[in-house]
Write a structure and sequence with these properties.
Largest sheet: 4 strands, mixed
Helix content: 40-55%
Shape: elongated
Length: about 230
């Protein structure tokens, strides 16, 4: 019955696939025809051409595949829940960067692709160095001195580096530019470094890619506040 009207997709398909996606209470379907039907407040129609490989059947209903559903939702959601979803999708191996690349290549110009490209860019390892450079540039623009980038340090017999260090005040700035699918070993090492720095008397501030790119004022204010408190000690 649904097949004559469309394919279950986006947030509704995500619910059927039991994906961690917030729902908005509407039924989302995708249709490729351009016929404008009567608008219903509980129905959201997405109009785009679906290739046969993007559609399957689940519980007797035509529905977008899990991969197609994830890609649709990543382009549809607000950026923060989209990042959370991509993080989970990479960790669970529901999705790979290649899946996103393929959507961008094969369906250039499709609505949502701009956000997909952004999420993919932020998820690649090179984003970490880019975010550190962005943080350093913000410090320069704010006229904040007394810091050094990538400071090598030995803690607990291990060698680490601090992304941005105010060594005189023992303030360490860590910027997590690679937002997604970090392996457990890397996460554990980062946690260990932060704990060892704290034990050695350092104050550790951790910022995300979003902080340095979208909330630069917050980034600068937080650092200035901590530097002021360390100076008064």
């Amino acid at each position: 019955m649904l097949g004559s009207r469309g394919v279950l997709s986006y947030l509704s398909a995500a619910e059927w696939w039991q994906l961690p996606v917030p729902h908005d209470g509407r039924i989302h379907v995708t249709k490729h025809d351009r016929q404008r039907n009567a608008v219903h407040p509980l129905l959201k129609v997405h109009r785009t051409l679906l290739v046969p490989s993007a559609v399957t059947n689940r519980f007797g209903l035509p529905i977008t595949t899990r991969t197609e559903t994830l890609l649709d939702c990543l382009g549809w959601l607000q950026i923060r829940p989209a990042r959370d979803l991509l993080d989970r999708a990479f960790q669970q191996r529901w999705l790979t960067p290649h899946d996103i690349d393929r959507r961008l290549d094969e369906q250039a110009g499709r609505w949502g692709n701009r956000q997909l490209a952004r999420l993919l860019r932020e998820s690649r390892p090179g984003a970490e160095a880019e975010s550190e450079r962005r943080g350093q540039k913000l410090l320069d623009q704010a006229g904040i001195t007394g810091w050094v980038g990538n400071l090598p340090i030995v803690l607990g017999g291990e060698r680490f580096r601090i992304d941005i260090a105010f060594a005189e005040h023992k303030v360490a700035i860590e910027i997590d530019g690679w937002a997604f699918h970090r392996d457990k070993e890397r996460r554990d090492r980062d946690i260990r470094k932060a704990n060892l720095l704290t034990q050695a008397g350092w104050r550790v501030l951790t910022f995300s890619w979003e902080d340095v790119n979208e909330r630069p004022d917050h980034f600068i204010r937080a650092i200035l506040s901590v530097l002021a408190s360390r100076t008064s000690i």
